[in-house]
Structures are given as C-alpha cells and as structure tokens.
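FORM 12-B: Structure-to-Sequence Request
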C-alpha cells in the first residue's frame, strides 16, 4: 500500500459457466485498493466528493447509497467476535467514474495486527438494487493463505439465470504487486460457475486514471452494460429464468 493509502488494480475478470448452458466471457476492469482511514490519492481521485474517480462511504458498508464505509466493516467484525482482525481494513472496489458506480462485488480485506489477512467481507450487489455480504474466515481466525478455500452458502439472488442455493468457494491471493480473487459457485443442478478477478497492483496516479479512462471508458457504466449483454446471451442460449425472490433478512451471512 502506498503512503497515500490508495492503490490501482489493473484487472481482468473472467466468468465461465459449465453445464447444460455453457458460456464464458472476459473483460478488463479497474479497481482501487484503499485504506479508508488514510486514503488521499492523486488529484483526479477523491474521497466522499466529486471527481473524475472517487470512493464514497455511502456506496459501501450497508444498503447501496446508504452505506457507512469502514465503520460498518468494524461493526460486522465485532458482532461476529472476530477479535483477531485488529489491523488495517482495506476496501477493494471499483471507484465512481464521473459520479456513477456499480460494484457486482467488492471486498473488505480485514487484517490482523501482524498484517496477515484474517477475514474478508464479500459485498455482493445485484442490478435490482439489493445487497448482501458474505463473511469469510477460518473458525480459529488463523491467517488466510493464498492456497486456502473458504466456503459460504449462497442465499442472495444475483442473476435471474442462477438459482438461490448452492455454495460459493472463495480463494484470495493479495500481494504487494498483484491481486487475485477466485469464486467457484457450485449450482444445485450440477452446473458450475467460475468467476475470477486478477490483476497487477501499483500506485494510483493521475496517469493511471487517465489511461484507464481512455482504454476502458465510462467505468462501471461499461461493466453494467456488459452484464446486461451477457444476460441477453444466456437468454438466447436458453438458460432457465429464475424470478427474483425477496432478499435475505440478514445483512451478513457466513
């Protein structure tokens, strides 16, 4: 993490679906890895105010647009008695670009005092305006290594082409120079969905922001458009449609 508390992750996301309806796509995406307690960033990046790119507390840690930022993450850790997560908490998320943001998933990376990753809160949002978070950690709160897999039961509706049920298996590899997140969704009907985010990590600079704006314009607007395009592809291929159920009553599950 740079002295300013904000890094840039020049990433690639991949989604692959295996089973009766196969599909796969890959596209580039820009994330920031931020220490909310000390984030400053370059001139073209702001915290809680408008800019070309920005991170707002209200976008994370609670319902979309009503979040409380890192204070919410600390409250989750306290509620679940994760006392060994007593170090920095970092947020891995797509930033606002010209005021717009949509994060299919962002991650609160919760560390111990020794700097090791101890828990991850995966904050999942759907295109219907709902949000649910999955809390990933070992029962004994030991460090999460890059080779380990953590499981959570899926209870939140994400896509109309996926049922609510089955399990997520998460793997995290967070290094000083790169980031890797792998999610394996085991669907109850026997199909599998793989989602990954991998990319190089480095300082967030004005130059990096401008290059991203030129190569991947419109930020999360572009991501949202790609999501709807892939939904059309799945519909065309005959994927089963699942109606949207009511979101779960609990905000966080394990």
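FORM 12-B RESPONSE
SEQUENCE OUT:
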């Amino acid at each position: 993490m740079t002295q300013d508390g904000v890094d840039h992750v020049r990433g690639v996301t991949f989604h692959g679906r295996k089973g009766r309806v196969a599909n796969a796509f890959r596209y580039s995406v820009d994330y920031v890895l931020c220490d909310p307690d000390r984030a400053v960033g370059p001139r073209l990046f702001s915290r809680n105010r408008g800019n070309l790119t920005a991170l707002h507390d209200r976008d994370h840690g609670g319902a979309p647009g009503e979040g409380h930022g890192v204070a919410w993450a600390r409250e989750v850790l306290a509620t679940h008695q994760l006392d060994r997560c007593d170090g920095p908490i970092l947020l891995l998320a797509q930033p606002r670009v010209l005021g717009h943001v949509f994060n299919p998933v962002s991650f609160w990376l919760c560390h111990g005092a020794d700097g090791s990753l101890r828990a991850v809160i995966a904050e999942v949002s759907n295109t219907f305006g709902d949000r649910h978070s999955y809390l990933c950690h070992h029962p004994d709160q030991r460090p999460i290594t890059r080779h380990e897999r953590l499981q959570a039961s899926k209870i939140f509706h994400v896509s109309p082409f996926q049922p609510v049920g089955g399990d997520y298996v998460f793997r995290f590899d967070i290094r000083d120079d790169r980031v890797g997140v792998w999610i394996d969704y085991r669907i109850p009907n026997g199909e599998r969905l793989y989602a990954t985010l991998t990319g190089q990590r480095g300082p967030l600079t004005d130059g990096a922001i401008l290059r991203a704006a030129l190569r991947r314009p419109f930020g999360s607007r572009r991501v949202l458009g790609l999501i709807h395009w892939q939904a059309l592809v799945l519909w065309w291929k005959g994927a089963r449609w699942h109606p949207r159920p009511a979101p779960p009553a609990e905000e966080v599950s394990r």
